[in-house]
């Protein structure tokens, strides 16, 4: 069970965008700190907001994929922690974004700390997602290689 397009799961197709945007926002924060160029605060603010929205779009598809894992399978438990880490990461990024919601959107120390913690959680969620696919074969169609 899972939402597919042309035989490919939708959740893995969608997660690249929020991952890139959310990690990118932290990179832009580093650029801001390194250069003191205020435009980086704007770029970080908008990539952060788009990353949060795209992460929220990807989440229901991951939930549907998890529902398709048989009860009692080790992947069910891993899927739960993958989802929890991902949702907590997006929540921390959202808190960071909220703290920046001013003009100009210069991040506070707390906002930067929340984003840093969120990146760590996002990395854990990604690692657990890899465990689901590569160790447990979640969403993998078994077939003969060409």
UniProtKB/TrEMBL annotation:
Record's keyword terms, sorted: Membrane, Transmembrane, Transmembrane helix
Keyword Membrane: yes
Residues in coiled coil: none
Record InterPro entries: DUF2231_TM
DUF2231 domain: residues covered: 7-141
Keyword Repeat: no
Domain of life: Bacteria
The protein's name in its UniProt record: DUF2231 domain-containing protein
Species: Pirellulimonas nuda
């Amino acid at each position: 069970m899972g939402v597919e397009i042309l035989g490919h799961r939708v959740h893995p197709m969608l997660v690249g965008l929020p991952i890139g945007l959310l990690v990118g926002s932290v990179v832009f924060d580093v650029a801001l700190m390194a250069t003191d160029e205020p435009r980086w605060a704007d770029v970080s603010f908008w990539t952060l907001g788009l990353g949060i929205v795209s992460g929220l779009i990807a989440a229901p598809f991951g939930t549907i994929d998890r529902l398709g894992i048989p009860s009692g399978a080790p992947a069910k438990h891993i899927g739960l922690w993958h989802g929890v880490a991902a949702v907590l990461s997006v929540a921390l990024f959202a808190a960071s974004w909220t703290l920046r919601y001013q003009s100009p959107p210069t991040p506070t120390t707390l906002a930067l700390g929340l984003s840093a913690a969120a990146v760590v959680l996002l990395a854990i969620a990604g690692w657990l997602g890899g465990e689901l696919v590569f160790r447990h074969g979640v969403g993998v169609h078994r077939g003969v290689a060409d």
